[in-house]
Write a structure and sequence with these properties.
- This protein is α+β, with helices and mostly antiparallel strands.
- It has a domain of 199 residues: Ribosomal Protein S5, domain 2, CATH 3.30.230.10.
- Helix 3 crosses helix 4 and helix 4 packs antiparallel against helix 5.
- The chain contains 13 helices and 12 strands.
- The longest helix has 27 residues.
- A 6-stranded mixed beta sheet has the order 4-3-5-2-1-12, sandwiched between helices. A 4-stranded antiparallel beta sheet has the order 9-10-8-11. It has a two-stranded antiparallel ribbon with strand order 6-7.
- The structure holds 2-acetamido-2-deoxy-1-O-phosphono-alpha-D-galactopyranose.
- 2-acetamido-2-deoxy-1-O-phosphono-alpha-D-galactopyranose (NG1) binds next to helix 3 and helix 5.
Length: 409
């Protein structure tokens, strides 16, 4: 069988062709699949993602000046050239270059970053699929610039810095994606908590398989999906403020909580939900209920994983999907269909992963059921839609991988 060229070679080979000399470094940053804990990170509540075997890689060579010159192996993305500084003007909304300018801009605002690079990017993370292709690029470029300019990189502080950086693109995201792409560990899922950022690695039982399946519908974060995402964030904040206002009025707790996590520390979760039922209505009540119940599901899922309780973990994934569909309104017909097919094929549970509104699902199988789950997805979703070309990119088993790194070539 013909050996396909591996991704790092592709970036380095393309570099040689483009710039007529060898690249000196390669930086890699993985995408991620979130197992449970959706739309909780920007509310300061926990998540449980896994860093993937799919990565963004940049072969690069430092420059003596402040220019960044970057090509993508994929010609769909035109070359980019700009000078590093603390107020870089963005490209048009949706342009890939904004994910490159984002870390350059943020690093230059905070550190003496004045040397750029020329480089070639290659990523095999599906774009706009909820697998965090964007944060992988942000992290890879950020790490390259930090390396070249000798910026001290403490992993957790750097993840927070990259999360701030990515908001340059207009999405008011949390810090899950940057943190797992930098700090993931091979063979493990990672429980991430926020304020302060903390990572706890949890070994995935050896016979569990997480299947990632793409609906083929893009959730363009630069378009309508970004507005919905940002609106959800505002709704969650509004819901929390109203609940806190009521607590203040009723003088119910000795210390006024200022965040979801403080509220959940101050009162039992059932009391928090009962209070929200009284104070909130309509969509704000639904958003609040999703966020609070999802956080509880993450904590329980960690226990289920530690106890190798695959049925229990799967049930939590199903509940998470239901909540994202009916309370958070971010599922779609295709996401619902794919999750149903996965369950029908024998998955212990299935849910949309990432922000939703398109993109991927993640389904849990074990060694004996994974083959049937994959076959059922192919037979009932991909074949009828004629989405079988490039199937490996759309349907694969997650390999829990380690976080980003820079190496000299
Ligand atoms: P994706 O699906 O990769 O766009 C987004 C946010 C996360 C998190 C999830 C929903 C960014 C970069 N990522 O991920 O922080 O909020 O949605 O759980 O904004």
């Amino acid at each position: 069988m013909m050996q396909t060229q591996s991704a790092p070679e592709r970036a380095a080979v393309a570099f040689l062709k483009e710039f007529g000399a060898a690249a000196t470094h390669l930086v890699r940053a993985p995408g991620r699949v979130n197992l449970i804990g959706e739309h909780t990170d920007y509310n300061g509540l926990p998540v449980l993602p896994v860093a993937l075997q799919r990565e963004a890689k940049v072969a690069f060579r430092p420059r003596p000046d402040g220019m960044v010159v970057l090509h993508d192996v994929d010609e769909e993305f035109p070359p980019l050239e700009f000078e590093i500084g603390p107020a870089i003007s963005p490209e048009a909304a949706g342009h890939w270059g904004n994910y490159v300018k984002a870390p350059a801009n943020e690093l230059a605002r905070r550190f003496a970053v004045w040397r750029g690079f020329e480089g070639v990017l290659h990523s095999d993370i599906p774009v706009a699929a909820g697998l965090s292709s964007s944060s992988a690029i942000v992290n890879a470029i950020g790490l390259a610039l930090a390396h070249i300019n000798e910026v001290p990189v403490e992993a957790r502080a750097f993840a927070e810095l990259m999360a701030d950086a990515e908001r340059y693109t207009g999405t008011l995201g949390g810090a899950m994606d940057q943190a797992i792409s930098l700090g993931g560990r091979s063979g493990c899922a990672t429980k991430i908590t926020f304020g302060p950022l903390r990572l706890q690695h949890v070994q995935i039982p050896a016979d569990w398989s997480f299947v990632v399946a793409d609906t083929g519908v893009r959730a363009e974060k630069a378009g309508a999906a970004q507005n919905t995402y940002n609106l959800r964030r505002t709704e969650c904040e509004d819901a929390l403020s109203r609940v806190i206002e009521d607590l203040v009025r009723a003088d119910r707790v000795p210390l006024i909580p200022s965040s979801y996590s403080a509220l959940l520390r101050a009162m039992p979760v059932d009391d928090v939900l009962a209070l929200a039922e009284d104070v909130l209505e309509g969509n704000l009540r639904r958003r609040f209920r999703h966020v609070v119940t999802e956080a509880a599901r993450v904590n329980e899922a960690v226990d289920r994983m530690r106890g190798a309780d695959i049925t229990g973990f799967g049930t939590l994934m199903d509940a998470s999907h239901g909540s994202l569909r009916t309370d958070f309104h971010v599922s779609t017909a295709e996401l619902d269909e794919l999750t149903a097919i996965a369950r029908e094929g024998g998955a212990f549970g299935a849910r949309l992963t990432g922000a939703g509104l398109g993109g991927c699902i993640v389904a849990l199988a074990d060694r004996t059921t994974v083959g049937t789950v994959l076959e059922t997805l192919v037979g009932e979703y991909y074949e009828p839609r004629k989405l079988t070309e490039d199937l490996d990119a759309r349907l694969f088993v997650a390999v829990a991988s380690s976080g980003a790194s820079v190496q000299a070539l």
